Amino acid sequence: MLVVVCLFIPVVNGILILLIGCYYSAKSLVGDALEDVATFEEQKQLTRDNRLGILVMGLLHFALLLVPFVGLLAPAIIGSSMCHFCFRAKARQLAI
């Protein structure tokens, strides 16, 4: 409910939409990164446990896309960084 109210505040709505977009763009790559490595339930648990990390990855991906000429390599960098992040999170999950 608070998110809906914040969408009507002029400056906060732009920041909130940016954060939501970055989070969901990075979250959409978790399933691809862990396709044959983790079950669906493990992927959901990993996403729940690492929400802040996924948000930060999304913000870093967004910042990477703003750099001229580096944005051309962005799909490869974004995919490999999400795979690395997910594999590290999976290893931490197994270690617990």
Description:
The chain is mostly helical. It has one domain (28-95). It is built from six helices and no strands. Helix 2 (10-27) packs across helix 5 and helix 5 (51-65) runs antiparallel to helix 6 (74-95). The longest helix is centred in the last third of the chain and has 22 residues, at 74-95. The mean pLDDT is 89.
Q: What percentage of the residues does DSSP assign to strands (E)?
A: under 5%
Count of separate structural domains = 1
Which regions contain 5 or more consecutive residues with pLDDT less than 50?
Answer: none
Number of beta-strand segments: 0
- Which whole number gives the mean pLDDT? 89
What's a quick, concise take on this entry?
The protein has helices at residues 2-6, 10-27, 30-33, 40-49, 51-65, 74-95.
Chart the SSEs and their pairings:
Elements lengths: L1 H5 L3 H18 L2 H4 L6 H10 L1 H15 L8 H22 L1
Helix pairs in contact: 2-5, 5-6
Short key terms for the protein model shown above:
mainly alpha, 96 residues
